[in-house]
Amino acid sequence: MSISSKFGTIFIKLAIVGAALSLASCEQADRAAAEARAEGSPETCADITACIVRLRTIAAARRGDRYGGMGQQEDMLASRLQSMPGVAEAMVPLLSDSDPGVAKLAAYVLRDVKQIDPRHLPAIRAGLDRDLGWLAPALARIGTDEAAAEAVQRLLAQHDTGNQEGYAVALFGNQAVPHIVAAARCPDGCKNPDTHRFLASMLQEMVVDAKLIVPQLLAICEDPSIPEDVARGALQMIGALGDRALSWQDSVDALAKQRPALGQDVEDVLISIHGDRAAGLLVQRLRENPDAMLLRDVGALGDRGRSAAPHIEPLLKHADPDLRESAAIALGYVGDERNVPALLAALDDATDVRQNLAAAEALGHMRAISAKPSLERASKTHWHPWVRDSAKSALLWIPKPRLKGAPDRRALFGFERRREIDCERPAAKIASPQVGVKSSESLGSGQLAKLRYTATAISYGPPEGAAPNADGVAAVTGSAMVRREKAVTRTPQVALRTGDGWLAGSDRGEWGGELMWLGDDGKRYRLFDGNIQDIHRLGNRYLAVSGIAHMSTNAGALLDLSINDHGRWHATSWRVLPGAPRSSGVTKEGELLVNTYQGGAVLVDAQGRMRMAECLDRTSAK
Fold first, then answer.
1. Apex CA 175: angle with CA 174 and CA 179, to 5°?
2. Among residues 208, 330, 375, 519, which is most buried (max CB within 10 A)?
3. Which of 292, 260, 263 is nearest to 2 (CA)?
4. Residues 6+ apart with CB under 8 A from 29
5. Residue 406 pLDDT
6. What pLDDT, on a 0 to 100 scale, did the predictor assign at position 11?
């Protein structure tokens, strides 16, 4: 199953607000701690009665505090209570205390006690109904089959897995398997369309015996009376087990003949569990639609993906920098030494720093001894510190035995490997704005009207006619989301006059952008789909600065803008940036300065030579 995965001003503002709230919360927590200390340190309370007095004192000091976490005082008190006999019997009655803070602290203590008598299950259930967020793991401390069923039920009601309910189910381990399988059968018709996705997420993280669950999930898939969507969900759960389910690849493969409608899903599972056919299936998909996530799926196969290497190598020269980077990453993990020359060429490609970085790491993962001279040179002379660091690491890996098996999935994503380099104050000075450069803020209303153009507005929402939830809102989920496009009139945020028209661009963050030609003769057409941060003239070149930083995406590039043989402007990728652009401008020395998110400030001359800009702050790259 191929996994499908942009910062803006709004995120910075949210971070500032969050910091302010966090500061206020910390001050409240400090007051609570001070009041608690006034009564004595929690770890010294002599018995349960004294500790309950301390618990009430802490809860009173925190009254009105919206901070949901627990601090040092609460941790020490919980640890002290958990070491005492009879703590569960003392804490359970507090779950119904009239003071919500007391109930919350009691739940926090019960979360990690060693054992809770099953007779307290009704009280634990009532506490969960009271929305005591820390309490769900207490179900695992009860440890009965009934408690396990309750944990799975609570998990599915949460619409999430990274929470206390998920932790509770994980604690049950194999004991939760029958209830997970029962939920996978969807006896209620799976009113929640994401049921199987939640269960699959749990299995991906849980320690469960595949021999217990895979045959039961296969039985769901093989049962002709089970609806196809339910069987499809059970297959998704098998895939979430990864190579733990590899022993059942033949049974999974046979499902495609038994239930032909599940053929695509069967292939997805074979890829996820690293089956014998996985590499071939991925190669076929790459031929039909080259995709960076598919390449990461190949890399996740490790040695089992080696047969795909000859088909991946040509993608090192693809026009899309994401594909070039991902191809290098994948080749490093499948480990076919016949790809070393192509990776050496990628290491030396002056147009793409991201591919330089990926190639250096790939050569290290492959333990490519023949690459040592090139890696030594890159470790000393490459213009970007990321590549120098990567080359140094690769040289350390080469003498070591190559790791067997599939890599950690997180290692397949570039952002996991990069240390942040930020430059708040580059030393280079931007020259006065170029003649003909305008922003939408500086243009008059008459000129604005001339530069307006038709663009496509993208939005996402629930399908038409989706039923509203209890709050009167139609929920949007991963399995029920519709992309909508609408033609709208836009005004560019940046524009550059060229003599007979304007090169104009817009940046709408995760909602996209475009680069347009707006001719004086009325001709208007699109040159590039993507966010445009600025447009510059550098020597005889016209360059657009493009990119986006949002969530896990952080990418940028310089586009060369020129007129083709047909007299039309077109855009081609010229230089890849180490990160999305924060700001840009032509310096007094005639270089383009681009300050990037996390990749530092970069200087580029008209010939395309790149170097790090000197910084006047502590985050300057060396």
1. 105
2. 330
3. 292
4. 62, 65, 67, 71
5. 65
6. 30
Determine contact, residues 367/400, Cβ cutoff 8 Å. yes
User: Residue 108: what are its φ and ψ, rounded to 5°?
Assistant: -65, -35
pLDDT in the model for residue 270: 97
Instruction: For residue 526, give both structure tokens.
Output: 């699109």
In contact, 415 and 552? CB cutoff 8 Å: yes
Interatomic CA distance for residues 252 and 228, integer angstroms: 15
Number of Cβ atoms within 10 Å of the Cβ of 106: 29
30: left (phi over 0), alpha (psi -120 to 50) or beta: alpha
Rg over alpha carbons for the chain, rounded to the nearest Å, is 29
Separation of alpha carbons 356 and 389, rounded Å: 11
Torsion sign over Cα 471, 472, 478, 479? positive
What's the rounded mean pLDDT across residues 143-168? 89
Between CA 31 and CA 67 the distance in angstroms is 13
Whole-angstrom distance between the N-terminal and C-terminal Cα of the chain?
41
Q: Please choose, from the candidates 68, 59, 52, the residue with its C-alpha nearest in 3D space to the C-alpha of residue 33.
A: 59
| Predicted confidence (pLDDT) per residue in 202-260, tens digit | 998 899 999 999 999 999 999 999 999 999 999 999 999 999 999 999 999 999 999 99
Distance CA 76, CA 82 (A): 10
CA dihedral 521, 525, 531, 533 (to 10 degrees): -20
Can you tell me which residue has the tokens 């986006």? 548
C-alpha to C-alpha distance for 89 and 116, rounded to whole angstroms: 8
As a whole number of angstroms, the distance between CA 28 and CA 32 comes to 6
Q: How far is CA 552 from CA 98, 154, 214, 305, 479, in A?
A: 43, 30, 32, 25, 21
Burial 332-351 (b: 16+ CB within 10 A, else e): bbbbbeebbebbbebbeeeb
CA distance 153 to 134: 16
Residue 584's nearest CA partner among 547, 540, 609, 539 is: 547
d(CA 104, CA 77): 13
Phi and psi angles of residue 615, each rounded to the nearest 5 degrees, phi first = -115, 150
DSSP SS3 for 161: coil
CA distances from 169 to 114, 178, 264, 322 (A): 16, 12, 30, 37
pLDDT digits (tens, 9 = 90+) for 496-551: 888 889 999 988 887 888 999 999 888 889 999 999 999 999 989 999 999 998 87
Q: In which band, very low, low, confident or very high, does the pLDDT at 446 lie, cut at 50, 70 and 90?
A: low
- Name the DSSP class of 242: G
Q: At what angle do helices 210-222 and 228-240 cross, to 10 degrees?
A: 160
pLDDT at 409 over 90: no
Write out pLDDT tens, residues 292-339: 999 999 999 999 999 999 999 999 999 999 999 999 999 999 999 999
Q: How many CB atoms lie within 10 A of CB 620?
A: 19
Q: Where are the domains of the chain?
A: 278-416, 437-462+492-612
Specify whether domain 278-416 bears CATH 1.25.10.10: yes
Output the six-digit token pair for 218. Answer: 């296969």
